[in-house]
Design goal:
It is elongated, with a radius of gyration of 36 Å. α1 packs across α9 and α2 (46-81) runs antiparallel to α7 (182-223). It contains ten helices and four strands. Helix content is 68%, strand content 7%. The protein folds into two domains: 30-79 and 186-321, no CATH class; 85-180, 2-Layer Sandwich (Alpha-Beta Plaits). The chain is α+β, with helices and mostly antiparallel strands.
Length: 326
Amino acid sequence: MARNPRQRRPAGARSTRTSLADQFTAWRHHHRDSLADALGRMRAAPSSALMTVLVIAIALALPAGLAVLMDNARALTKGWDGQAHLSVFLQLDVDNDRQRALAEEWTGFDTVARTEVITREQALDEFKTLSGFGDVLEALPDNPLPPLIVVYPEDVAPGQIEALQRRLNGLPEVDNAQLDVAWVRRLHAIIELGDRLISVLTLGLAIAVVLVVVNTIRLAIESRREEIVVIKIVGGTDGFVRRPFLYSGFCFGFAGGLLALILVSLALWWLGGPINELLRLYESEHSLTGMAASTALVLPLFSGTLGLLGAWLAVSRHLGDIEPQF
């Protein structure tokens, strides 16, 4: 029987193309399911998840709390820095009018915040009051004290103050510009040392957080070895298998960062009473302040990023070792 040339052959199997919209929808759904899977597994094993989160929180709370205390110390000592000044003694022949003119001229320097004029008469009266040798000083034929201008620098860094001291000492009407900069150097050295110690501590504990997450994700991979083998047999890619573990690492880190915020807040609340009382006894207007809002926002994200990094390292190291055996 002749075949009709117009008769169509039965259609066989043919491949279909998935649109970009469908691919994006599938990608988005898998991310959502991976996040739900990570949270569900944390709820399924609350004790082990809590231990991991608590270790991360303690590791991050220590440098975060020290950073808050350093910020408070820096704010407290800012007022002390303002007391750093230069005592500029002028020549004895400089009269009061010229002394005030010099003080006004120096105020225009970009490195000078303000000046204070102490005339020879004011200095003598103050010395009589404080020393108790008023009768002896009255017997002197002339006032032996030179005119004085107290200069308060704009920048209290030791190097800047010493540069201003050299500049003033080079002026012809200045006899001597004195500065006790030793305590300023000690103060800045202590603050800088504290900042560096916090940086080193943060780096070391951040590495510890990554290692904790690496170990946690490694155990999770081993416990799901058979499931991973099945997924690879049916065609699941490494990215498909990797994604739930990455979300688990991020969730562990993010939860640890949130718990670290709570621990720091509790510690500051517990220490706030004694610290504020100590400041009050020293007649200080400062009080203990908490963590800045920007730091509170960054800390959980930073911790989550560390968890994500730890999960990536664990998956990259161990996932390739799990392959179907045929």
